[in-house]
Amino acid sequence: MMNWATETDPRLPRWLNTILNWPPFLLPMECILPVLMFTSGYISAETGKWVWIDFTQQKPQMFRNGIFCIRFMLPFCVCLQIRWSADASPSYFQFILGWKLNGRFSIACRFEDDASAAAGVLSPNTDQSSGWLEGGK
Questions:
Q1: Could you give phi then psi for residue 86, rounded to 5 degrees?
Q2: Alpha-carbon radius of gyration of the chain
Q3: Which label site among 43, 44, 63, 92 has the fewest CB atoms less than 10 Å from its CB?
């Protein structure tokens, strides 16, 4: 059985949420395939040292914390994050174009900080890393 994850984004008009919750703008989560994620410039949770090059594939987050993060997924998604500060507000920029991990199509361009990311839009985001520490965003 396919897993269809509909959502209602309070920032969008109801008609647009309705459109985004139907194919082709909503795909089963099983159809989203992470291909590559590159992250640079974060402090390792294991060693406490800076990591400058990290290639991964299967991570449950759209972004990883660091100075720079780019992710590619199929059928099509590009996610980009650039962080310039650990404590300024805003402290990083995020861009998404394509189908997110939950299968919903998104175009997002935002400036954010750790507190607003942890608060989330629909509900609080748990296990968010902050500052330069390793982890998901």
A1: -90, -20
A2: 15
A3: 44
* Cα–Cα distance list, 99 to 7, 62, 125 (Å): 13, 11, 19
In this predicted structure, what is the pLDDT of residue 98?
98
Domain range list for the chain: 30-119
Inter-residue long-range contacts of 84-89, CB under 8 Å, 24+ positions, other chains counted: 86/130, 86/131, 86/132, 87/131, 88/113, 89/113, 89/115
Per-residue pLDDT, 60: 73
Q: And the tokens for 19?
A: 């459109």
Residue 35: what pLDDT?
Answer: 92
Q: Would you state the structure tokens that stand for residue 93, as one six-digit string?
A: 């920029």
Cα 121–Cα 54–Cα 131 angle in degrees, nearest 5: 45
Name, in order, each residue with C-beta under 8 angstroms of 27's C-beta and a sequence gap of 6 or more. Answer: 75, 99, 103
How is 78-114 classified by DSSP, letter by letter?
A: EEEEEE--SSSSS-EEEEEEEE-TTSBEEEEEEEE-H
pTM across the whole model: 0.88
Cβ contact 75:81 at 8 Å: no
